Amino acid sequence: MEIALSIILILVSLVMILLVLLHKGKGGGLSDLFGGGVSSTLGSSSVVERNLDRITIFFGVLWFVVIVVLGWLLSH
After folding, report:
1. What dihedral angle (degrees, nearest 10) is formed by the CA atoms of 19, 51, 37, 27?
2. What is the pLDDT of residues 21-39, one digit of tens each?
3. Exposure winner among 10, 19, 23, 39, fewest CB in 10 A?
4. Is the pTM of the predicted complex or chain greater than 0.90?
């Protein structure tokens, strides 16, 4: 179980890094690298930014839960 959670934690961490870099003006500017950002190519910027925020929050909560469960399993 600990190995599976460790793998999930690594994957979620990599996704979190990617999501933070995709945020326009908040991350490393990866969205501007591809000609004006993700929001300009996918439609309305406010909708895409809101969805990106929701996905980032979901993965952040998932990351936190996996850390807590993994810590609890390793301590028992």
Report:
1. -40
2. 887 665 455 555 555 555 5
3. 10
4. no
